[in-house]
Amino acid sequence: MAWRDDWRRVRAIVWKDLTTEGRSKAGFNSVAALGVTILVLFGFALGPDAQALRDAAAGALWLAVLFAGVLAFNRSYQVELESGALEPLLLYPGARWTIFAGKLIANTIFVGLMLVIVVLVGIVLFQVRVPDAWPTLILVLALGAIGLVSLGTFYAAMASRSRAREVLLPLLLFPMLVPVLLAAMSASKALLSGDLMHEAPAWIRMLVAYDVIFVVAPLLAFEHVIEV
Amino acid sequence: MTPVPRVDIAIDAQGVARRFGARWVLRGVDLQVRPGEMVGLLGANGSGKSTLLRILATLLKPSAGGATVYGHDVVKSPDDVRRHIGFLAHSPGLYDDLTARENLQFGAAMLGLDHPDLDAALERVGLAHVTHERVRGFSAGMQRRLSLARLVLANARVLLLDEPYSNLDVAGIALMNELIGESVAGGGAALVVLHELAPAAGLLDRTITIRDGRIADDDAAFLEPDALAAAGER
Q1: Which residue of chain A has the CA closest to B93?
Q2: Which residue of A has its CA nearest to B102?
Q3: Strands, E assignment, chain B
Q4: Cβ of B85 under 8 Å from any chain A Cβ?
Q5: Rounded-to-integer distance, Cα A160 and Cα A148, Å
Q6: How far apart are CA A211 and CA B44, in angstroms?
Q7: In terms of DSSP bridges, do strands B158-162 and B23-33 run parallel, antiparallel, or are they unpaired?
Q8: Phi, psi angle pair for B18, to nearest 5°
Q9: Rounded CA separation A119/A192 (Å)
Q10: Cβ contact (<8 Å) for A91 and B96?
Q11: Taking CB atoms and an 8 Å cutoff, what residues of chain A touch B112?
Q12: How many interface pairs between A and B have CB atoms less than 8 angstroms apart?
């Protein structure tokens, strides 16, 4: 059955990406370290004013995730490119979207783990009071991460064929991420400050809409992007 | 030009041309390989052998002309073509941080195999003793053998092999020939890029020489014992 084979391929990619990453550890350590470093630098730049730190927390958090994420997305195809495994991967029969779906899930888990570390460090560094609506904040973090990872994984595939992929990826990715980051940052900021103006639901709806677009469109277009 | 699908022909290339930028690497190659046939593809470096193989494997699209594998068009039905081919490239295409068995396990899952006998495949290529070792520590020859194990699992009808004997020792060459021979004897077809004829001497039915992107020689008679010995000395 086609869907069973597709699902098996997706699981195989997830397993392969997470296993190779788990064994090398170089990727996760460097990505998490970069995220934490960015937060620390922001913390120092803003000084000891507790209110200023809290106000800037959401922005600093998403910028840390963005920059560290780019490092992670570049790595997601590096394993294939270094070992010449991209061609065998493309030669397996079956739908190419399964490769994207597998990498999307693996990268979401990867960035999710990084996000946990960055959020915990951010709470301490920026003296953030955990809001009552923390489940909604977790939802916003998850939605923001999915949008970021989906576009990042897609554009990393597009840039993977280029020799200047490390430079090309941010150039392609950052402009496209503006709506997701804006919505995620605004929703996070509203929730961290108690959402007195009830802004968060509108931003969350926008995030959901962007996520749907940014997951479905790459799934459909991936075959053409990865084509030689 | 759209080739007429012929399912009685394993590989059918008609007027295949490919350019990279302004440079034409292939300039209209016509080639047919029948089931049960092993064909050697010869030519100098840069003559277009690997490019032709990559087009037949659906990794590159031809700039002009077309090709079919068992009647499936490499451009219009690439997925159908992929179900028939086993491709061995220069680089082994393995994951260094996975073990030999895990690499095969991944390949089997991607091929959609329900109950692959991974241990038998590893045993077949002489890697049973390093089943649980990471590929990172393997020699080039061992990596080649593991790529071969992946081909064994795929059980493809058409083998497209790019310099398959490189990095292999005498036993490895014998193993490669055994696997190709079995495939061809079972009605499969093999198109093999070669730099020297000697390793495949006893198996080849025909050789095709590509020069400057065109077929310069398509000669079964070339494989008469005397001619073969002479070719080995060139």
Answers
A1: A85
A2: A16
A3: 11-20, 23-33, 38-42, 64-69, 72-73, 85-88, 158-162, 189-193, 206-211, 214-219
A4: yes
A5: 18
A6: 51
A7: unpaired
A8: -150, 135
A9: 12
A10: no
A11: 5, 8-9, 93-94
A12: 77
Asked if the C-beta of B91 comes within 8 angstroms of chain A's C-beta atoms, the answer is: yes
Q: Which alpha helices (DSSP H) does chain B contain, by range? A: 49-56, 78-82, 100-111, 118-124, 140-154, 170-185, 225-233
CB A203 within 8 A of CB A183: yes
Element (H, E) at A139: helix A134-159
- The domain in which residue A165 lies consists of 2-226
8-state DSSP, A95: -
pTM: 0.88
What is the total count of domains within chain A? 1
- Closest C-alpha to B158, from B72, B49, B219, B62: B72
List the one residue out of A172, A184, A219, A199 whose CA is nearest residue A63: A184
The Cα-based distances of A151 to A67, A145, A173, B164, B213 in angstroms read: 14, 10, 7, 38, 40
The closest of A216, A128, A143, A215 to A185, measured between CA atoms, is A143
Instruction: Kindly determine whether residue B82 and residue A23, on different chains, have CB atoms separated by under 8 Å.
Output: no
Please compute, for residue B2, the number of CA atoms within 13 A of its CA located in the half-sphere on the CB side: 8
* Domain extents in chain B: 1-84+156-234, 90-154
The helix/strand/coil state of B172 is helix
8 A C-beta contact, residue B84 and residue B157: yes
Q: What is the pLDDT along chain A (228 residues), one digit of tens a residue?
A: 688 889 999 999 999 999 999 998 778 889 999 999 999 999 999 888 888 888 899 999 999 999 999 988 988 888 888 888 999 999 999 899 999 999 999 999 999 999 999 999 999 999 888 888 899 999 999 999 999 999 999 999 998 878 888 888 999 999 999 999 999 999 999 999 887 888 899 999 999 999 999 999 999 999 888 875
Whether chain B has a CB inside 8 Å of the CB on A194: the answer is: no
Q: CB distance A16–B95 less than 8 Å?
A: yes
Choosing among 3.40.50.300, 3.30.830.10, 3.40.50.720, 3.90.660.10, the CATH entry for B1-84+156-234 is 3.40.50.300
- Checking DSSP bridges between strand B85-88 and strand B189-193, what pairing results, if any? unpaired
